[in-house]
Design goal:
Elements lengths: L15 H14 L12 H8 L3 H13 L3 E4 L3 E4 L20 H25 L2 H16 L4 H19 L2 H9 L1 H11 L3 H19 L3 H28 L1
Antiparallel strand pairs: 1-2
């Protein structure tokens, strides 16, 4: 096992992946692993943190989402070659969701709201609405290299789900929170790694909707939102240390 990982204590089970993400982020920011350097293997990290592979992979996904690492399929995880935008700017202190309580409240509301919305979508979505979502995902792929335009499509995707749920009350609530969603989405997708992960997650959501499978659709949305929440919390903790 890498000497950098020795002496780590077991983590509380309730927040395993988030705590792993925070500890790894702190080590990376401190320079324990340099830009471009490969992290220890999954087996080593699991042993060091006393966690299973699923918790570790959730943590790595969160760090990739915020651009701190790059995960190569079958090739391990590497520290991003360039410093993350998040650690070289003051944007965390400029938004409305700039403290733990505000973020927790908003994400709880969003998880309840959007998981219910996509579950209804799976039962009620039409072929035309599926084609609209396919078109949005296709345009996201085309504009993946243009974050300023991409986040607008990401927001449109989530609002389209609200329309497809065919519940006017839920749709109106979703529209009411779209300004905060715009703030979070635009900031979470500043980096290519976050965009690529979001594209995969959106495609999985659409496939679950195509199958008219509400359980799968809900699970995909929950995973998507949890990945983002973990990543954002890592950013807040590191910002508080600086």
């Amino acid at each position: 096992m890498s000497k950098l990982l020795e002496g780590l204590a077991p983590l509380p089970r309730a927040t395993l992946s988030e705590q792993v993400a925070k500890q790894l982020a702190a080590r990376i920011v401190a320079g324990d692993w340099k830009a471009g350097e490969k992290l220890p293997s999954e087996a080593e990290l699991c042993k060091a943190f006393h966690v299973g592979r699923s918790s570790l992979r959730e943590a790595l996904t969160s760090l990739a989402f915020i651009g701190l690492i790059r995960v190569r399929a079958g090739g391990g995880s590497y520290v991003a070659e360039q410093p993350s935008t998040y650690y070289t700017s003051a944007w965390l202190s400029t938004g409305t969701l700039n403290n733990e309580k505000a973020l927790q409240d908003f994400m709880e509301a969003r998880m309840i709201l959007e998981c219910e919305i996509i579950s209804l979508c799976a039962e009620r979505i039409t072929d035309e609405e599926l084609r609209e979502l396919d078109e949005l995902v296709s345009r996201m792929h085309e504009l993946a290299g243009n974050p300023d335009e991409y986040w607008k499509l990401d927001l449109a995707f989530h609002l389209a789900l609200g329309t497809a749920a065919k519940n006017e009350v839920l749709t109106n609530i979703l529209k009411d929170v779209r300004e905060q969603m715009r703030d979070l989405i635009s900031k979470s997708l500043l980096l290519r790694e976050g965009i690529e992960l979001a594209l995969v997650q959106h495609a999985r959501m659409v496939e679950a909707l195509r199958q008219h499978n509400p359980v799968k659709a809900r699970a995909e949305m929950l995973s998507h939102l949890q990945n983002f929440q973990r990543g954002y919390r890592v950013l807040m903790e590191e910002a508080a240390r600086q």
